[in-house]
Inverse folding.
């Protein structure tokens, strides 16, 4: 039996709304998939693939038997927010599923989604306050995945936890980066109510270092956990960057999410009837593509300086490694031109962007197929016309002049990530400590806090 590939609502339907694009797979569809898992001899998905260490074979065995209560109990051992990872995780576990050696991997993420949504529907997801209080206070700075995970971890150890968040609501990039059509924000709100019932206090619209000093938190807390992500997005400093109509991806995505949830009444960057160019080929770029399509863009083009990946796993990333290969998102399937090996040279226009001059590049590869360097191709310059350009090229770290860095005298690595100070009970978790990565790794980082003194 192979995987189910029809997991989405019809394109003609979904591209006209912001509801989640994935349809809910039934027990009848998922159960045969979980039974495929039972023939595995060595579960690389658990020990090698999942940063959280989820008990995947055991969960799937319970689902195959129809015992969803046990499946949920097993899932809850290592995963505090499975409703998030079941929607936005790229499923590292599936890339190292043993079935990939001779067929397609088991649908682990979809099984997890069925487990957690069944648990919510049956009222099994309840607050889990600590059995006793330890009398100590912890301040968590940042309510993204890492901060929420750290808050839960400390609270269940008996700490009194207050989470400070500069935005209007919790979630970080889950709320203000990932589009509603991948993660409906009611899912985050549902979890917030549970966390508050556990005793976690949220102070939103509060920027540490500005509205409340980091020194004050140090004086009034027994421990501080910093989970501010990587606030600095990678920009593109080529001629013409000053032109109107060029925006960082999160300016676009965050603005749409705030508009859709009623946090703001004005749509700040509207793609309607515009020729949209997305520079950057990753997941954030894909999210820009899907959002622009839903706002009625005239056309959407996504370009990437890297070469077009191979259609199947590259020899440079043998199983069970995360494969370097071509990936097509649900947004790409909705109508988008994709191009690779294009280097952006300059933005064109007088006051507002009208296009981008690009040139093709040729890549050199290692013997096993890994791209290592490029050279411009002669006489390959061209202009891509655009009325709106979105820069989705990743994140670079934490600025050295960030108020939290200054006020807590934090050290930084050469990559501008933050270094914990365990001697002072100051810990950095998530992207601000590791560099930009995945939601599931941020959650795992938040759970990895040592037993604070």
């Amino acid at each position: 039996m192979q995987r189910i590939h029809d997991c989405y609502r019809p394109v003609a339907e979904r591209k006209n709304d912001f509801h989640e694009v994935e349809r809910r797979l039934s027990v009848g569809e998922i159960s045969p998939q979980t039974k495929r898992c039972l023939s595995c001899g060595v579960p690389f998905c658990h020990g090698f693939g999942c940063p959280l260490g989820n008990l995947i074979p055991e969960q799937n065995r319970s689902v195959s038997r129809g015992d969803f209560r046990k499946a949920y109990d097993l899932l809850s051992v290592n995963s505090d927010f499975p409703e998030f990872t079941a929607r936005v995780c790229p499923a590292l576990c599936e890339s190292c599923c043993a079935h990939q050696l001779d067929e397609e991997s088991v649908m682990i993420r979809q099984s997890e989604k069925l487990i957690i949504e069944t648990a919510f529907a049956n009222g099994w997801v309840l607050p889990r306050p600590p059995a006793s209080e330890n009398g100590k206070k912890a301040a968590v700075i940042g309510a993204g995945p890492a901060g929420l995970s750290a808050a839960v971890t400390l609270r269940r150890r008996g700490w009194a936890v207050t989470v400070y968040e500069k935005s209007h609501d919790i979630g970080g990039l889950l709320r203000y980066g990932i589009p509603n059509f991948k993660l409906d924000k009611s899912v985050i709100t549902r979890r917030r109510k549970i966390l508050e019932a556990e005793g976690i206090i949220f102070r939103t619209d509060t920027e540490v270092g500005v509205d409340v000093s980091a020194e004050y938190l140090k004086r009034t807390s027994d421990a501080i956990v910093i989970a501010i992500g990587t606030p600095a997005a990678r920009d593109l400093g080529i001629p013409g960057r000053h032109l109107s109509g060029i925006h960082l991806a999160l300016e676009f995505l965050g603005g749409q999410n705030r508009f859709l949830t009623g946090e703001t009444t004005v749509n700040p960057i509207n793609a309607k009837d515009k020729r949209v160019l997305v520079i950057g080929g990753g997941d954030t770029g894909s999210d820009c593509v899907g959002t622009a399509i839903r706002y009625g863009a005239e056309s959407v083009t996504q370009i990437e300086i890297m070469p077009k990946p191979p259609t199947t796993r590259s020899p440079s990333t043998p199983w069970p490694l995360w494969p370097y290969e071509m990936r097509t998102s649900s947004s790409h399937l909705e109508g988008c031109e994709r191009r690779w090996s294009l280097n952006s040279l300059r933005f064109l226009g007088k006051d507002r962007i009208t296009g981008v001059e690009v040139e093709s590049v040729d890549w050199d590869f290692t013997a096993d197929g890994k791209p290592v360097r490029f050279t411009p191709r002669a006489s390959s310059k061209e202009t891509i016309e655009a009325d709106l350009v979105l820069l989705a090229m990743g994140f670079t770290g934490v600025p050295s002049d960030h108020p939290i860095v200054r006020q807590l005298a934090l050290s930084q690595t050469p990559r501008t990530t933050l270094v914990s100070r365990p001697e002072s009970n100051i810990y950095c978790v998530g992207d601000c400590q590791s560099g930009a990565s995945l939601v599931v790794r941020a959650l795992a980082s938040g759970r990895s806090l040592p037993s604070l003194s």
In short: The radius of gyration is 23 Å. The chain has a mean pLDDT of 96. The chain has three domains: 11-121, 137-231+396-447, 235-393.
